[in-house]
Amino acid sequence: MNPEVIYKILFRLTSAVTDYFPVTGAKVLNIVIKNLLGNKILYNLFLFQNKQKIKKTKQFNRFLVVADLNIGDAVICSSGVAAIKKIFPLAEIEYVVKKSTGVLFYHDPDISKLYPVFNSAPYPNKKDLNVLSQIAKSKNYDLIFNLSPMVNNKIFGKKNVINFLLIAEELIRGEKSSGAINNAAIQIHNSIISLFRELSSVYTEDNYMGANIFISDKAIYEAKNFLSKNGVSNDSPVVMLNPDASGKFTQIPFDLLVKLLKRLCELGCRILLGEGHAEPNIENRLIEALPA
Fold first, then answer.
1. Cα angle vertex 115, ends 78, 274, to 5°?
2. Which residues of 239-276 are buried (b: 16+ CB within 10 A; e: fewer)?
C-alpha cells in the first residue's frame, strides 16, 4: 500500500481516538506505541538489518541523504549529514530537501551538493518522486539514508538504503528513558554514529549539540528589507509565530495560541504571524479572537 494512504489512515484513526477520548485515548495510544513500536526485539531487528547493509558496502565515498518533506524536518535531518561527515570527512554527501528550504543549506560545509527539489508536503507528489528517482539513478551512491517515512525504499531501485525506521525506534525508545535527551536531531545524529561504530577508526565522540543552519548575507539583507518595508523597526524584539502545521495532530490548540499571542502583546514585541495552509484563515481567526 502507498505510504501516503497508510499514514493518512493512521492519522485519521489516532485523531478520532483522541478527539472522542482525549485523556483515555492518549494514554492507550502511548502504551501501545511505546510497547509495540518501541519494542527492544523490533529495534534489534532493524539494527541488525542496517548493520548487515553496512557490512556489504565496500566503500564509503559517496552518500545521498533524503530529508523528510517539511521545513523543520530538513533542518532536523541535516544532523544526519553532520554525523556522516564526522565519520567520513573526505566523503561526498549530497542532500535532498524541500525546495523552499534550500536557502538554509547552501553554505553548509558538510554538504557536497544540495538538491532542493521537493515541492509537496507532508506527502511527496509524483513529480517529487520522479525527480528523487532520477537523482538516485544519476550516481553510484555507496549508501543512501532515507529519512522520510513518506518515501518508499523501492524508489531507489537496488541501491543500498538505510531506512528511517531505526531512528523512529530510537525516538520511541527514548520516550521510555527518563532524563534522556530525546531530541530528534540528536537522535538521528547519534543513531548514524552508532551504526558505524563497529568499523575501525571511525568517529566515536558523541558531543553533538544540535542542527545548524547557514543563512547567507543575501538572505539577511532580504529579511531586513522586508522588516523595513513593513514598518517593523529594531527598537523592540520581533517574534515570528507560525500557527500552522502539516496537520491538526501537530498543531498547537487554538485557545493556547490565543493565550500565547495575548502574552506576547503584553510584552511589547512586534509579532509576525504566519498564514495557515493546513488550516486556511487561522491567522485571521486568531487576530479576531484578540482584544482590540
1. 70
2. eebebbbbeeeebeeeeebbebbeebeeeeebeebeeb
Which residues have CB under 8 Å from 198's CB, separation 6+? 51
Burial (0-12, 13-18, 19+ Cβ within 10 Å), 13: exposed
Residue pointed to by grid coordinates 534489534: 44
Facing residues of 270 across strands? 238
In whole angstroms, what is the distance from residue 120 CA to residue 100 CA?
10
**Summary count for the chain: helices (H), strands (E):** 10, 7
pLDDT digits (tens, 9 = 90+) for 143-201: 999 999 889 889 998 899 998 887 787 778 777 776 667 788 888 998 888 888 876 55
Identify whether the C-beta of residue 245 lies closer than 8 Å to the C-beta of residue 274. Answer: no
Q: What CA–CA distance (Å, rounded) separates 51 from 21?
A: 41
Structural contact between residues 146 and 63, judged by C-beta atoms closer than 8 angstroms = no
pTM of the model: 0.81
Q: Whole-angstrom Cα distance, residue 276 to residue 236? A: 26
> What end-to-end distance do the CA atoms of the chain give, in Å?
50
Q: What are the pLDDT digits (tens) for 112-125?
A: 999 999 998 778 88
> Helix, strand or coil for residue 97?
strand
Q: Which three cell numbers stand for residue 79?
A: 544532523
∠ CA 249-260-22, nearest 5°, is 35
Nearest-CA neighbor of 176 among 35, 288, 56, 14? Answer: 35
- How many CB atoms sit inside 10 A of residue 63's CB? 22
